[in-house]
Amino acid sequence: MNEIGARRLRLLRDGYGPVVPEVLLDAMTARRRGIADLESANAADSRLDPGRRRHAAVAAEWALGDRRLLDGHRAAFLEALRL
Question: Could you please report the per-residue DSSP string of 47-63?
């Protein structure tokens, strides 16, 4: 993780006040999972407008990719949060 990314992560943390780094990362991961689940369901919902369904598919992919990033670099994120 570069210094800019670490600084942004700490700013996010600071916006929530005193929070345990692991708790913050767990919440971020859970939220991405929730977004992926919701938007995957929207993407498959034939009652929705095709444009909304395309948007939902992209949002679900973003959330899954972001979750993989969080999971794959957890140690680096924790280190950045502990500074």
Answer: TS-HHHHHHHHHHHHHH
- The CA distance from 21 to 8, in Å, is 14
- Other beta carbons within 10 Å of 77: 22
2, containing H or E segment: none
- DSSP secondary structure string, 10-77? HHHHHHT-S--HHHHHHHHHHHHHHHHHHHHHHHH-TTS-HHHHHHHHHHHHHHHHHHHHHHHTHHHH
pLDDT tens string, the chain, 83 residues long: the values are 788 988 999 999 999 988 999 999 999 999 999 999 999 999 999 999 999 999 999 999 999 999 999 999 999 999 999 88
Question: Could you report the per-residue pLDDT of 22-37, keeping only the tens digit for each?
Answer: 999 999 999 999 999 9
